Amino acid sequence: MHNKGTIFNIQRFSTSDGPGIRTVVFMKGCPLDCAWCHNPESKSTATELFYKSEQCISCGACVNVCTANGHTFSDGIHLFDHEKCMRCGKCAQVCWPNALALCGEERSAEEIMDIVLRDKPFYEESGGGITLSGGEPLMQYDFTRSLLKLAKKHNLHTAIETSGFSNRDLTILNDFVDLWLYDVKVFPEKEHVKHTGVSNKMIFDNLYLLDRIGAEIVLRCPIIPDINMTSQHFAAIADLVTALNHVTAIHLEPYHPLGLSKAKQLGKKQSYQSNTFLDPSSIAFFADTLRTITATEVIII
Question: Is pTM beyond 0.90 here?
Fold first, then answer.
């Protein structure tokens, strides 16, 4: 069993990724390529480098340490070539304005758990625990299992946020998972392929499998204008919940454009380019409609 994995963030005191106060471990790597991705830094399994041009003071320290010639200056303007970058991190170490920052590091399960356990009293008081997110934790299946198993040894509540796109045995993993935060993005398979790059057949197969074995499931539904913000989509959510027996809540997640700036900092460009936050009130009608169709709790988060 792999005891080391690649993560890009550990967020303490989260209250939106499962019950109570939680520590969320964000893992690198995702098999989906969602057009609206909120965490583009999670897609690649490799370490990457953020460049925040607005924080650069053109001091030139990065040029002096970069052996790949990834940093150059033209008329006083700092140009960074992501393609040349070897991701050694030397430039980030000397960049005191923090215009450059590495994203992604290898950690052992024990190292991560040492951080998680710092807040155990808060978990016990609030009913919280640890949540594994990403990216896609199932891409690092063995490491994910190691982390979850270790968390259960310390009697922590465990949750995993996942797209469900995996050919690994989720029934084995479920022995160490208290709550599945399961993404439901687009229903028609053709449209799912168009907007995420993969079929959703395996995703729904795994969802029904988890339901059959009695796993506790919360559906997490990103709502994206011009893609799935339709009455047909919400009707399909209702039909899905009706067909399942262990969905305890439906979380509707209004689109936000924060992924656009992060993608730019990574030298990437997302296909969905809206820079407008979706006002939660815009989907209140759909949420109310869901509440009349199903007894399952519906929350806009």
Answer: yes
